[in-house]
Structures are given as C-alpha cells and as structure tokens.
Amino acid sequence: MAPTFPEKVIRYCPKCGSRDFVYHRDNSFLCGSCSFHLYINSAAAVAALIVNEKGELLLTRRAIEPQLGMLDLPGGFVDVMETVENAVQREISEELNLNIKEMKYFMSYPNEYVFGGLSVFTTDLAFICRIESFKNIKAEDDISSFEFYKPGDIPLDEIGSVSIKEIVKSFVKNNNN
Asked: Where is the Nudix hydrolase domain (predicted)?
C-alpha cells in the first residue's frame, strides 16, 4: 500500500477532530467519537482526444506537478455540480483557447493522482472532440506547450499518467483498424 493512500495519510476526523477515525476495507473511515462516516470515492476527470486535419493527435505538456513536463491529454477535474460535457469544453477553452464543435464519449480508465502527498483516485472520461478551428490555439493554464503526433510516433514513455497512456493506446489502436 502506497504511503499516499488515504488510510496512510488521514489521521483525524474532519468533523470533530478526533483521532478515533478508523479506516475500513470498504474504502471508508468511521469516527468512533461522533460517528461521522467518510467514503473515499473516485473523482471525475475528463480528457480530450483532438486530431488535426493531418490525422495527428494533440498532446500537451504539463506545466505543474504532478508529472511536470510529461505529456498528457488536455483536460482536468470536473467541478462540483458540473457536467462532464461542460468540463471538457471549459478545460479545452482554459488550456488551449479552443472551442469544441462536436464531442463523443470514447472510454474511461481509473487513475491515481497524487497531489500534496495524498492519493486522489479518479475516473478519467475520454471524449473524441472536433474543434471549430486551430487558428487561435495557445498553451495556457496548467500546460506549458502542445504538440501534434502521428499515431505511430507518439512517445508513450513520455506520458505521465497510466490512465492517459491507456486511453491514448486504445485510441490509436481503434483508429488504425
């Protein structure tokens, strides 16, 4: 078990502050003092698969930790009370200054995102997106740059996240058949 897993990091009840906050095998904590019950659930995140007119896949470079400098798909966490579709549009606008013309759900993959010494478990939902125009594309927000790759030339070892690597591999395989 990784030292960043919640059961190794969380020590106090967030409701009453008691140390009698016990982890259970159903991915939950239960406070013996105030009976507060906290489940560790998966957070939703989105990723966009964007192909240009040459058939090349758009990948971004992370400007922040975790995985600073590694390749990624554009996307991010779904905000509270936000649909995944709105999250895809918001993230692509924030990170690349692009507008999505059309999107279609592709697949999901589980992920462990370590941030601040805590494992945050996500379900990464990938969408195939068509862009109105690449004319005003620019790297912003939490990406330092973007690169287009021919499907056979994608450096998978430079993709930081296991989930994103699996999504990209599936996308390439499905588009080469």
From this structure: 41-177
Same domain, 29 and 47: no
Q: CB–CB of 56/148 below 8 Å?
A: yes
Q: Tens digits of per-residue pLDDT, 74-132? A: 999 999 999 999 999 999 999 999 999 999 999 999 999 999 999 999 999 999 999 99
Task: List phi, psi (to 5°) of 133.
Answer: -160, 145
CA atoms within 13 A on the CB side of 103: 21
Q: Give pLDDT tens digits for 122-159.
A: 999 999 999 999 999 999 999 999 999 999 999 999 99
Residue 147 belongs to some domain of the structure: yes
Report the DSSP beta bridge partners of residue 127.
Answer: 48, 105
Model pTM greater than 0.90? yes
- 63 and 134 share a domain? yes
What are phi and psi for residue 172, nearest 5 degrees? -60, -45
What distance in Å separates the CA atoms of residue 116 and residue 120, rounded to the nearest whole number? 10
Q: Are residues 34 and 53 in the same domain?
A: no
Quick one: tokens of 8?
């190794």
